[in-house]
Amino acid sequence: MYKIDKINRKLLEIIQNDGRSSNQDVAEKLNLSPSPCLQRRKYLEEKGVITGYSSQVDLKKIARHVFVWAEVTLKHNKVAEEKIFEKYLMDTDYIIKALALGGKVDYLVLFCVPSVEFYQTATYTMMEETNIIKNLTSHFVMREVKKFEGFPLSLLLDAQDATP
Question: Where are the domains of the chain?
Fold first, then answer.
């Protein structure tokens, strides 16, 4: 874990909220000249703190779609099964997020598909091809209440700074 100073914290907050900010704009907000600002940004990229830049697409404006969260429990908690399942997740483009969990459920998987019928076929295929799924429970998203707009950096970094 890297120690993040106040300037780098503010830099991360700025680009997390607007990844298209020019170096000049970020430098002005940080009260830095462009060269040291760019050096800080490059350093954070090289260290893997900044892992990339992306755009958010409003799917409602371009395509019909369904989001489905699936709770998946594997038959056995074996490393071999986890590897098979995780490879399947990584190789499937309509699975857009997957989390390994502790507790009764092994994985929480987010699907983005064109229809409920497509989802049904996709999950049957996943169960047949992997042959390691004990239980799959689906939760269909009705509407998005809160959109991800970045991590609570101040909260997390303040808590880290307070820890002895």
Answer: 6-55, 59-140
Domain 59-140: top CATH class: alpha beta
How many Cβ atoms from other residues are within 10 Å of residue 5's Cβ? 10
Q: Which of the 8 DSSP states describes residue 42?
A: H
For Cα atoms 122, 125, 129, give the angle at the middle one, nearest 5 degrees. Answer: 140
CA pair distance 121, 18, nearest whole angstrom: 38
Burial 95-131, CB ≥16 within 10 A → b, else e? beebeeeeeebbbebbbbbeeeeebeebbeebeeebe
Domain 6-55 - what CATH class? mainly alpha
> Each residue of 95-142: pLDDT tens digit?
999 999 999 999 999 999 999 999 999 999 999 999 999 999 999 999
What predicted TM-score, i.e. pTM, was given to this entire model? Answer: 0.87
